Input
Amino acid sequence: MIVFTETAGAAGNISELFQRISELSALTLSLTGGRVTIERDLRQSGEQPRSATLAARVKDMVDSARTVTLESVISMPFGSYGEVQKINCGFALDVDDSAPGFGIGCAIHEMWENYQAREILNDSWNHRFGPAHSGAIDVENAVVSELRGGRVARMATHRVRDGGDTYYVMDYHTTLVAIRQNGHGRRQAYEAVVIPPRIVETIQLYPGAVSVDTNAKAISHALKLLAENPPATAGISGPLATSIRDMIAVQFKQDVYLDGDPARGLEKIHDKGQGADRGDLRAFVEAATPQDAPDGQIVIRGFPED
Ligand SMILES: [Zn+2]
Output
């Protein structure tokens, strides 16, 4: 079951969001008394959904014995994890208007995260965040890939401050999405731009390195490039990838770590469960190490030069 509550100012957006999801999933969804129901499943009469994953996952949630609890808010972009999952429907719709697929991807992420957390038992609500978030990233990637055609995978997300402006960069590996907020409160609106990534620099890591110290120069060069290029992200491969990813997260205050295990260098203070960092930091661990760079490398990617 999916239950939705409204906060003042965000009300109209819930039905608009479900209207959009209906169009893309071949499900006729309606919201009655705060509860989402499937009035008709047009797939049964042969209609092909634009995203089969979106249709399947929405049906999973609606049919579930557990209650997915959502609250429509405008106090933050995206949404946030919790027993009551916050979701900014207006943000999702605005992003989807300007970058079709990506906004609905963000919306299904928030919903599925709450659903997954309810399926993971025998652990604290806080520890369920990592696996719930990671599962939500998988669903988001599948939905966005189906809606846009081709393959996207969210690797990084970070907030960029540019003078008095703030925007978000999401790195989907084959494409970057930049989301800017205009106005605040009830006047807020978001605009997304889809940008092909440019490789700023590829930094080779050294062979036989057993600790990050051996690669201190390479890492400080990467940090310098990231500081000079506020939208840029860092994709890291090789045996030291996780340690270097953590160091960059600390440097840009994206997460809280402390000195711990000497081999790994840093240890997370707040354990939110495996997968909590996935797709949410500025630096990320590449799925594979390139064959021609077995010791690993740091690839800095940013916007094209104008
Ligand atoms: Zn998440």
In short: The chain has three domains: 2-148, 156-195, 198-302. Residues 2 and 36 are 5 Å apart (CA to CA). The mean pLDDT is 90.
